[in-house]
Q: What sequence folds into this?
């Protein structure tokens, strides 16, 4: 029975990975299927790669600052890992995300557990805390994007537009409210089964981990430094998109507020459950640029180049860090009596 269960779990994981990969590249295909490859080639010839290189450097630095910030959450636990160890763990985590969606958090905790002997469950709480603070900052960026372009967003969602009418019809749809009432009734009737289900227990456990992770922030010795690290990370993230505008003639005149909107909306694609935001990030970023008057083919070229640059950075540095980690582990094994 145990072997059969293990086989089923492995098969399930393989199907999840395959499904996520298929979804990523299917979205990518849908986004680029009508794109003329010659347009991308011609735009690439005129691309100023210096700005793309600068965005790559900012990406690498942002991940190093993330490692420093992570250490601040770990220190109250009585452990002080080296910045290099934490950086290797962070980059291996990003590297793992391209293989298995959302596996990065588990991978980097596993790496630091082996290098510094910190309990896995303890580290997972700090990573969840990190994600919580990042979510808050992302929402602030989205809010800033909407506020800085308030007139434009008001026009889009105003009554009489397609989006505005669609939202009004959705909210006033009686089937929506009837469906919500039925779902509420079913939850009430089957509340005992729901409360005893494995899914509900996992959700409760996740919420407990989030709460424990947030508590670690209050134990951080230097809170202003933690906040500063967080700001630096996200300023670097923003400039990875905004400074890349300078690489192309068709985007170099775009304003900071447009960069803010493009970054905020594109970031939603990274949150999507697909490897490295492949497809989802391209779609959201290109659609946002088209909204500001950039021609469709040019918008897709920008998304393709910027995402490819960051992907290669993560894959190369992640692979180097994985090799360094493997060599270190082999060295430690040989040193054991």
A:
């Amino acid at each position: 029975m145990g072997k059969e269960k293990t086989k089923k779990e492995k098969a399930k994981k393989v199907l999840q990975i395959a499904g996520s990969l298929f979804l990523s590249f299917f979205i990518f295909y849908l986004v680029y299927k009508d794109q003329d490859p010659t347009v991308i080639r011609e735009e690439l010839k005129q691309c100023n790669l210096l700005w793309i290189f600068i965005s790559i450097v900012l990406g690498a630095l942002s991940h190093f600052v993330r490692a420093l910030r992570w250490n601040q959450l770990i220190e109250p636990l009585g452990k002080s890992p080296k910045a290099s160890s934490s950086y290797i763990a962070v980059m291996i985590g990003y590297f793992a995300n391209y293989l298995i969606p959302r596996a990065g958090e588990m991978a980097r905790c596993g790496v630091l557990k082996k290098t510094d002997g910190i309990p896995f469950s303890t580290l997972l709480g700090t990573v969840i805390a990190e994600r919580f603070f990042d979510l808050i900052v992302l929402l602030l960026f989205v809010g800033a994007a909407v506020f800085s372009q308030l007139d434009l967003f008001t026009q889009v969602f105003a009554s009489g537009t397609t989006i505005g009418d669609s939202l009004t019809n959705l909210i006033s749809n009686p089937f929506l409210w009837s469906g919500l009432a039925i779902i509420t009734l079913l939850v009430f009737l089957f509340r005992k089964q729901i409360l005893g289900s494995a899914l509900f227990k996992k959700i409760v456990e996740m919420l407990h981990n989030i709460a424990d992770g947030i508590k670690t922030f209050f134990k951080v010795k230097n809170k202003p430094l933690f906040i500063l690290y967080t700001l630096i990370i996200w300023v670097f993230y923003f400039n990875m998109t905004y400074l890349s505008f300078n690489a192309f003639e068709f985007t170099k005149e775009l304003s900071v507020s447009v960069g803010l909107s493009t970054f905020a909306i594109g970031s939603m694609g990274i949150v999507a459950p697909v490897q490295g935001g492949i497809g989802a990030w391209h779609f959201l970023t290109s659609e946002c640029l088209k909204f500001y008057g950039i021609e469709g083919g040019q918008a897709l070229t920008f998304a393709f180049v910027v995402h490819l640059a960051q992907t290669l950075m993560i894959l190369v540095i992640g692979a180097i860090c994985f090799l360094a980690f493997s060599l270190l582990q082999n060295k430690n094994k040989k040193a054991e009596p």
About this structure: The chain has one domain: 41-329.
